[in-house]
Backbone:
């Protein structure tokens, strides 16, 4: 069996500090939890590691509980508590127990949720940043395209062709209050906001 155990997610508890701790606070808090459960007396120590896809690790060979420094920089006190209790429960039992019933009971006994998996705050933070960057890029591209169409004096009416999503050539067949509707080369109908239509018409003209 492996010499370490991994926790992947966290469950939040009420009435805990909800802002991220700094790394010194994380270390002090983690060590204090280990001391509460007498792990220091049996030779266990605490460390940070550079993992990005997992949160915590209990290494029975080196008697070290480590948590990801990247995760720790994005985690709250509640997050750290749950990760540490997860790994402490492993350290208090033989490695052969894994994530079995004895481990679950031990975790609940020491104040953990009894859950093996939870959300990774580092991954959540990175994912949110990537999504925001993609949104901002799309907005910038749309604004630039709309400006170019406006400067070119582009207007849209029934019968015009728009280039949608970079490839679909949509012929406008009707319009409503805020949208144009049209049919592409495959016979599919599209609904297109009027605010976007001039830049899509310009894109169609530039592709010819």
Residues:
């Amino acid at each position: 069996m492996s010499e370490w155990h991994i926790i992947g997610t966290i469950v939040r508890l009420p009435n805990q500090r909800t802002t991220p701790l700094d790394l010194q606070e994380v270390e002090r808090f983690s060590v204090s939890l280990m001391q509460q459960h007498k792990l220091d007396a049996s030779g266990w120590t605490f460390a940070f590691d550079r993992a990005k896809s997992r949160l915590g690790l209990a290494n029975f060979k080196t008697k070290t509980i480590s948590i990801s420094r990247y995760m720790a920089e994005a985690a709250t006190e509640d997050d750290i508590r749950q990760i540490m209790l997860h790994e402490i429960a492993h350290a208090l039992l033989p490695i052969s127990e894994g994530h079995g019933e004895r481990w679950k009971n031990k975790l609940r006994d020491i104040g953990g949720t009894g859950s093996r998996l939870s959300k990774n705050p580092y991954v959540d933070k990175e994912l949110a940043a990537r999504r925001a960057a993609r949104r901002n890029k799309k907005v910038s591209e749309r604004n630039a395209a709309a400006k170019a169409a406006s400067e070119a004096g582009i207007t849209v009416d029934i019968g015009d062709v728009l280039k949608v999503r970079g490839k679909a050539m949509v012929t406008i067949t009707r319009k409503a209050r805020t949208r144009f509707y049209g049919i592409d080369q495959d016979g599919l109908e599209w609904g297109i906001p009027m605010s976007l239509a001039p830049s899509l018409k310009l894109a169609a003209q530039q592709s010819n």
Residues 1-17 have pLDDT under 50 and may be disordered. The beta strands are 6-7, 45-49, 56-59, 64-68, 161-164, 168-175, 179-183, 189-193. Residues 121-151 form the longest helix (31 residues). Helices lie at 23-36, 69-74, 77-91, 101-109, 121-151, 197-207.
